[in-house]
């Protein structure tokens, strides 16, 4: 009897475990999709309150009802819509996925337990590759976006269509440009700003070069290397299409020595090394030159930093594996095929219809926003979202303060972006996680300080030797081999 009870207990545990695993698997564990009396498929949709501390459930219900009323004659879909506080969102969605409680949800490549990488690795996202074919949704995004956001040739995510590429500029305070008559057309490489740094230092600027406590190699080596591990110590040489140890290249060593020289000359603030500079540094006269992530409307930097700035674009803009996944939708892997198709139908309409896009993004006109001279003026009290986490930028009304040509700016930006040679490749770190952790600890100790000009020039060669030795002791060469093998295997399939 005791053995039977033990067996029953074991079987119960296995059954419970199977439910959880099934909920995270790829195969429709639900008995069937929920439908309305008139045959519409009901989909549970969740997303975080990005602009509010918490959701106003009554207003969310009102928006849900308005959406359902609007789409009832357009698609056979009805929304069951819920919003969750951003701080709790990742954990709540993770639990809801395990319990099979949601169909369609928002996520991103930086969303922790429900990040795009984690969802694919844990079989938490539905493979929509076949469902997409010939759909309205497929037509709404460029082929390069679908390819770059794919995993092993399969589509699991629907990127929110906004800027789809990554590139970097140097940013100059216009007051100093005018004061010293800087000719920004002469700036072609990072080293070209040295005379301007000298001017800034002589003028008493505390941080002639404000790195924002961020390594520059990742940004300004972008035309030479594609980063495939999320770090700049290993990259793919864009010219040779080969994995290389970037930190051992002549260009990298030369760059480190230049930063050390600038550090000794006082061009780089110690606060950038210790990450103790004032958080509002860019809004003041604390700095002379810094960096900026290129966006379709670079002019927005001046209003953001409350002073006029000028830009020099230093790299191309690249569409790569993660540049399209900073804001995206996913369908739960354990949803039914009917609900998955309904989710694709809903997103297809959301990405194509301005009325629906406005409802989902801004709420109900007169209650959540007013339309003034063709622009959205938010009230922001009960319902408040932004285009970047909601819908296709081409089919949503502009907010007050946005440029009237915003859509054209985005279209031009995306049109001119270059598809990276690594677009679609994703490094599987599951076999190297311990090594990566050890390597990152070494990089944190040596790499960041080296890139920030924290060592005297006379010590750089010695410190680099110590750095390389510590990396190898941490298993760095194993990581290089793993990355190289995976990338070469992926290349052969392209």
From TrEMBL:
| Domain DUF3502: from-to ranges | 422-491
Cite a single Pfam family from the UniProt record.
Answer: DUF3502
> Which of UniProt's keywords are assigned here?
Signal
Q: Tell me the domain of life.
A: Bacteria
SUPFAM superfamilies associated with the record:
Periplasmic binding protein-like II
| Signal peptide range | 1-23
Lipid biosynthesis is among the record's keywords? no
Q: Which InterPro entries match?
A: DUF3502
Protein's name in the database: DUF3502 domain-containing protein
Write down the species. Answer: Enterococcus alcedinis
